[in-house]
């Protein structure tokens, strides 16, 4: 791009040098943008005064000191006067006799964005002709005719210069148009506000970044464009920008649920800050992925820290249970038997707690598939009602979720059921109500909210309820339920918030998950299925044929090698572990190296941290899976 710009600048300069008249262009700060060769030659200017960026005032001072304007008295006052005239940006035409006796015409035209285009023409021959005509009009009729022809020629040259000037203006306008088009195409909102915090420029993309906001912003105050709530949060950053401090920060727009990254850059005009440039982008998906990655890393660290302890703890519990069984068989007194039974119950509770620690520190597989939320919640209602006491009612409301969305339905059901059980415990014997709602937030999130009529969260619970092992149930709770729901939500790229209801005073738990609509299913194709377990191969084959695909099967890499050259092969799906010497990923890597270019995927029941899975090198689908999960996996990983 820099090379093209340099070439364009050189071509423009070459074109201007072909114009017979002198030409200069100064910007709104009266700094030279471009001047042709004739401009330097006509006024015999040194190189530094015809270099882009040269000050108009320096050029006037140089000419005045050289006597080009005749006797001007105080040179600095003369320079100031000429600068003030230029800053008025009024079109003008004048003729001036220079100290060397040459007469030039000066024609200036202001530019729309500020600045000047000025054309200088040496009209000395024309002036001489006019004087000669006046002195000898009767005697020199033949010469008058010749001079008239010369004048006509001069006028034609002037017309040519004017055409060149118009072309220069057209190019400047086209450059401005291209710059604006580039700004309009950016997937971000680009704008500028002045010191009154009113917009002086906008690329009309604010509504794309923050839905519901206006697009025509020029002249609007920032509070009217952004809304009072968001403006009040961003206003301190504006204040710092107007002191010269740039900043980059992130905020959540509560109206749309989107996370916005904003960059503010002060606009300096000499030593004064006249405005602030704004660049804002929707980074909701980036933040969701970042949160999921962060949570996954935390879980992996927790798994490393707890795996050894859990192993040793499990061994100790096994030893204690064995000893307790031997004690129970001894002829002990009634009181001692009660102590043995109580110890045994405590040990079994420790085993249950150990399982829950393993589930929260281990990496849970995500199983995404298209899900009808109303159907999912009807199934959840069947499970939940059997756990509710007679005095507690469960209400479920679903709005604007009639179409399938992509969710890990099992994890969502488990999480909401956990919240319902917590709400039941908070309400106690009742009477009371648990209200479950599901709705979309714009097209960014799907929100599941559980509200109860219990006493609500205590201040300490609001602060620590998501911490593992924090519980308000005394010895009856493990403190892992709500933290597990939080963990599952974060791994899925979602958000979990706790609050108390202003209406009922009860607890409110809100789960927001990324709202993903199902992708278009991949087109039917010929699939090579490589799986050594006959039952699994049959099940997966039925799923694929139900989706409209044709399937050929193999149990090993050796058997599959004879099928990869079939015409029309459009997809290979292989298990990681196969019969024979080669694993599935090793076989697929060999095909890729041989130049076979069809989509290649793998499936496995190996745990995520197994090197044979972690280093597969191809997209992995975890077993077991449903047809919906398989269809979603193919849509995500295979281009249609």
TrEMBL record:
EC number in record: 2.7.13.3
Residue span, Histidine kinase domain: 308-517
Keyword Phosphoprotein attributed: yes
Keyword NAD: no
Residues recorded as bearing 4-aspartylphosphate in the entry: 575
One GO MF term attached to the UniProt entry: phosphorelay sensor kinase activity
Response regulatory domain mapped to chain residues: 526-638
Record's catalysed reaction(s): ATP + protein L-histidine = ADP + protein N-phospho-L-histidine
Coiled-coil spans in chain: 151-178
Entry keyword set: Coiled coil, Kinase, Phosphoprotein, Transferase
PANTHER family: SENSOR HISTIDINE KINASE (PTHR43065), TWO-COMPONENT SENSOR PPRA (PTHR43065:SF42)
Protein name from the UniProt record: histidine kinase
């Amino acid at each position: 791009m820099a090379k093209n710009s340099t070439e364009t600048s050189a071509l423009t300069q070459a074109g201007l040098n072909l114009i017979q008249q002198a030409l200069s262009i100064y910007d709104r700060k009266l700094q030279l943008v471009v001047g042709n060769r004739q401009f330097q030659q006509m006024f015999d200017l040194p190189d530094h005064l015809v270099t882009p960026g040269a000050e108009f005032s320096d050029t006037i001072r140089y000419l005045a000191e050289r006597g080009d304007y005749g006797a001007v008295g105080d040179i600095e006052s003369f320079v100031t006067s000429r600068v003030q005239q230029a800053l008025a940006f009024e079109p003008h035409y004048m003729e001036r006799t220079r100290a060397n006796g040459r007469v030039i015409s000066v024609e200036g035209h202001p530019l729309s964005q500020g600045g000047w285009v000025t054309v200088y023409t040496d009209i000395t021959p024309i002036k001489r002709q006019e004087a000669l005509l006046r002195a000898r009009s009767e005697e020199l009729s033949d010469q008058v005719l010749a001079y008239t022809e010369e004048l006509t020629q001069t006028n034609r040259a002037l017309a040519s210069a004017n055409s060149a000037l118009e072309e220069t203006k057209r190019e400047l306008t086209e450059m401005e148009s291209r710059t604006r088009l580039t700004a309009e195409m950016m997937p971000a909102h680009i704008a500028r506000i002045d010191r009154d915090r009113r917009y002086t420029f906008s690329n009309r993309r604010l509504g794309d970044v923050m839905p519901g906001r206006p697009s025509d912003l020029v002249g609007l105050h920032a509070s009217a464009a952004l809304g009072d709530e968001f403006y009040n949060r961003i206003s301190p950053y504006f204040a710092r920008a107007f002191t010269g401090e740039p900043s980059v920060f992130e905020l959540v727009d509560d109206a749309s649920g989107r996370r916005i990254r904003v960059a503010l850059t002060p606009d300096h005009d000499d030593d004064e800050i006249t405005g602030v440039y704004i660049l804002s982008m929707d980074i909701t998906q980036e933040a969701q992925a970042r949160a999921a990655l962060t949570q996954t890393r935390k879980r992996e660290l927790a798994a490393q820290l707890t795996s050894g302890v859990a192993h040793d703890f499990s061994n100790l519990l096994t030893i204690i249970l064995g000893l307790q069984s031997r004690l129970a068989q001894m002829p002990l007194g009634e009181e001692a038997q009660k102590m043995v039974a109580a110890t045994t119950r405590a040990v079994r509770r420790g085993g249950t707690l150990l399982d829950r620690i393993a589930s929260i520190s281990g990496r849970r597989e995500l199983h995404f598939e298209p899900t009808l939320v109303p159907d999912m919640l009807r199934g959840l209602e069947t499970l939940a009602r059997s756990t509710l006491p007679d005095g507690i009612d469960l209400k479920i409301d679903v709005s604007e979720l009639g179409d399938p969305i992509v969710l890990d339905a099992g994890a969502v059901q488990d999480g909401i059921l956990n919240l319902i059980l917590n709400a039941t415990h908070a309400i106690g014997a009742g009477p009371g109500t648990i209200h479950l709602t599901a709705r979309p937030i714009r097209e960014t999130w799907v929100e599941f909210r559980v509200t109860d009529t219990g006493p609500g969260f205590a201040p300490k619970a609001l602060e620590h309820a998501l911490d593992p092992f924090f519980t308000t149930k005394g010895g009856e709770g493990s403190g892992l339920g709500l933290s597990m729901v939080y963990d599952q939500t974060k791994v899925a790229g979602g958000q979990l918030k706790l609050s108390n209801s202003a209406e009922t005073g009860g607890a409110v738990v809100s789960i927001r998950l990324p709202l993903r609509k199902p992708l278009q299913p991949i087109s039917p194709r010929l699939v090579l299925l490589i799986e050594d377990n006959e039952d699994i191969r049959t099940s997966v084959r039925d799923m694929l044929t139900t989706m409209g695909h044709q399937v050929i099967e193999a149990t090993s890499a050796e058997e599959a090698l004879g099928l990869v050259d079939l015409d029309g092969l459009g997809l290979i799906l292989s298990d990681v572990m196969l019969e024979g010497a080669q694993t599935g990923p090793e076989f697929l890597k060999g095909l890729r190296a041989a130049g076979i270019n069809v989509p290649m995927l793998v499936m496995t029941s190996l745990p995520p941290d197994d090197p044979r899975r972690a280093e597969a090198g191809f997209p992995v689908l975890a077993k077991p899976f449903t047809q919906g999960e398989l269809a979603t996996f193919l849509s995500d990983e295979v281009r249609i």
